[in-house]
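Practice set, problem 2.
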Amino acid sequence: MDFQNRAGSKPGAGALMSNSESNVARRERLRKLALETIDIEKDPYFMRNHLGSYECKLCLTLHTNEGSYLAHTQGKKHQTNLARRATRDAKDNEQSAAVHRPILPKINKNVVKIGRPGYKVTKVRDPQSKQFGLLFEITYPEVTDETKPRHRFMAAYEQRVEVPNSQYQYLLFAAEPYETVAFKVQSREVDMRPGRFWSHWDKDTRRFTLQFFFRNLARSNTDREATGANSVPVQPRFNPLNPYITSS
């Protein structure tokens, strides 16, 4: 067959290579380059099987000789699988590090207490529901702008200052650098509905205000809702003891 008269060929130079011949030549160049630069024994994915052929444990491919395997390692499939494996390993390492991260000891801040804050306690009663409540006004003039006072109820059996008495509970207020103050109140159910329990922190006057009501032992008439055909919807009303929230 005459190869000199093909289109695009030069006299005496032979024919142009086809796509398949170009791929074979490229793989041969990559194989020779890999043989010179890569130590195949250190490849973690290289394996010889019992048939004398070679396998890639990453891509699950079979190769007849080392050159074929090295050419495969320079190909797109092997490089893509290597990138995926590296991403998965990095993610697994992050998760394992998060699980086995040592728990650092809690550092107690040495805050110098400057004494107890000023306070005022007022007994209140809702004229409509006849509920009894308490209004607390705690003054913290020396706190920083980022500090907001906190509060919580504590059962009598949580404290170690007095002999526990199930008839009482304690309401605590805390804000650094002041000492925590506790008030002994009746151990009754607190009405946590909107308008019955509220608190407010005034940054200008540095005064923390909290007001709550105890639930009545008997169900009050204002809390009853009519049922049946004669039911009348309950309209919200203004709570004179709470200027911030309207009660229903």
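Problem 2, part (b): a different protein.
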Amino acid sequence: MAAKRGYATEGAARVYGGLKDQDRIFTNLYGKHDFGLKGALKRGDWYKTKELVLKGEDWIINEMKVSGMRGRGGAGFPSGLKWSFMGKSSPGRPRYLVINADEGEPGTCKDREIMRHDPHKLIEGCLIAGRAMLANAAYIYVRG
């Protein structure tokens, strides 16, 4: 009779950096749920988005600053501060929100799963960020 192999994590709850499941932003990265509008609404996407947008750019930018969110680049620049520069520069000129979904660096393959399985989170984020920056249009860069 063969012995059953046991794993050290068997039966133990897994912990990933202190982030609880209910705090995760992208809740369908593995495509286990409907990626369409009905599925997104069930997962909480678009909840009170209109109210957030109507609060205006100053409120959104302040919330971003208070959140402490930083960019993913090497400098980790504060996102709220960066957003605040957009609306004040060159009034009357068009402003664009550009989302870099390029996965050109070796080992990067996260953006495609967001776009494939949780697209409403991306579009909702574009709407809120675009409102904060007074953007006229948003573009999502994807390398072919």
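Answer key, part (b): The chain has a mean pLDDT of 83. DSSP finds six helices and two strands in the chain.
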